[in-house]
Amino acid sequence: MERITMAHGAGGTVMNDLIKKYILRHFGGSGAEVPLEALDDSAVINDIVLKSDSHAVKPIFFPGGDIGRLSVAGTVNDIAMMGAEPIALTSGFVLEEGLPITDLERILESMEKTCREAGVYIITGDTKVVEKSSLGGCVINTSGIGKRNEALERDIVEVKKHRPFNSRWILDSNLRKGDKIIVSGTMGDHGLAVLSAQEGYNFGSQIMSDVAPLNKLVMKLLNVGGIVAMKDPTRGGLSNSLNEWSEKSKVGILIREEKIPIRGDVKAACEILGIDPLEVGNEGKVVIGVVPQKAEEILAALRESREGKDAQIIGEAKEDFSEVVLETLVGGKRILAPPIGDPVPRIC
Q1: Separation of alpha carbons 70 and 91, rounded Å
Q2: Which pLDDT score is estimated for 105?
Q3: Where are the alpha helices (DSSP H) in the chain?
Q4: Alpha-carbon distances of 213 from 78, 196, 265, 297, rounded to whole Å
Q5: What is the pLDDT of residues 320-341, one digit of tens each?
Q6: CA dist list (Å): 338 to 272, 307, 334
Q7: Which domains does the chain have, with CATH numbers?
Q8: 210-239 mean pLDDT
Q9: Taking the chain, what is the end-to-end CA distance rounded to the nearest angstrom?
Q10: Is the pLDDT of residue 44 over 90?
Q11: How does DSSP assign 231-251, residue by residue?
């Protein structure tokens, strides 16, 4: 008898197969403008952007963040990746019997602070308590809604100055030949921070999670214009995000290893553990597809911000092959296959 494993929630090919083989077989068929079947960061119906996300990170407190900040930032970011303006959140708590009230209050204070940072607030929710189990203290579901905005409209107008563009939203399927790929900062920070807390590893430095709401940064970038695709590279990391773009947009993607920003301590820790940092999840970074004529302007706008100071143009979309290809430091090329799953369990 086939059973659910941790890999089914790890954001790679195993989870994608579960969703496509089982979940989409029973759900879908809504006729929404961006439906469940699109498997984008959020759905769209009647110009309302809708997202639901459950957070089961272990441990609930980790260097640079906690489950509360993660739950707010993660949902806000998924709505923003569509080009939408997040306007409200819900929050559902599943609390484990025995959770210290002081821990709950710490989580709530963190959520409050992150909501204020994002300018998006929780307006309804639910609380349940379950017997002590393996939750690790609590699980939080955060849902959110967003709306169209003037920045998105300006972005689309700018894109159309340079090439045909039929989408009303920023989608995984919008990438075309020549579009540049930009990352807003260093890869792998969040996953390695959580792993260090899970296993008690000491990597010789304090690796901190990058978890942060990105909606205000995204609005700034949309006002520059030229963006066609955005994704926060969470479970499965940059590798999974690029492979999703390649599959849905039906283009190849060439990225250059020398251009991908990775902290030295993260790279060293990944080498010790035999982990590919490009498969490790992030919670405060964005990958951007942009028409080539606007790439340098987007890069400059990113580097003006705290969140994007390490931003880099790392590659472009191609039509002479259909995979994601990594040009290595020594000049060779290899296929960057979609990961089976994030190598770090329960990072979000």
Answers
A1: 12
A2: 98
A3: 13-18, 24-26, 67-80, 101-118, 150-160, 189-199, 215-224, 237-249, 264-273, 295-303
A4: 10, 23, 24, 22
A5: 999 999 999 988 999 999 888 7
A6: 22, 26, 13
A7: 6-147 (3.30.1330.10), 151-335 (3.90.650.10)
A8: 97
A9: 28
A10: yes
A11: E---TTHHHHHHHHHHHHHT-
**pLDDT averaged over the chain?**
94
pTM across the whole model = 0.95
Of 89, 84, 88, 90, residue with least CA distance to 147: 84
Residue listed under structure tokens 């690029």: 242
Q: For helices 101-118 and 67-80, what crossing angle results, to 10°?
A: 30
Please state the rounded mean pLDDT for residues 247-257.
97
13: its two tokens? 């090919």
Q: What is the pLDDT of residues 181-208, one digit of tens each?
A: 999 999 999 999 999 999 888 776 789 9
- Are residues 11 and 282 in contact, defined by beta-carbon separation less than 8 angstroms? no
Task: Identify the helix (H) or strand (E) that includes residue 54.
Answer: strand 48-55
Quick: pLDDT tens for 138-159: 999 999 999 999 999 999 999 9
Cis peptide before 277 (omega within 30 of 0): no
pLDDT for the residue 204 = 64
Give every CB contact of residue 337 below 8 A, 6+ residues apart in sequence.
Answer: 239, 243, 323, 324
CA distances from residue 254 to 173, 229, 324 in whole angstroms, order as listed: 17, 16, 6
Give the whole-angstrom CA distance, residue 292 versus residue 160. Answer: 13
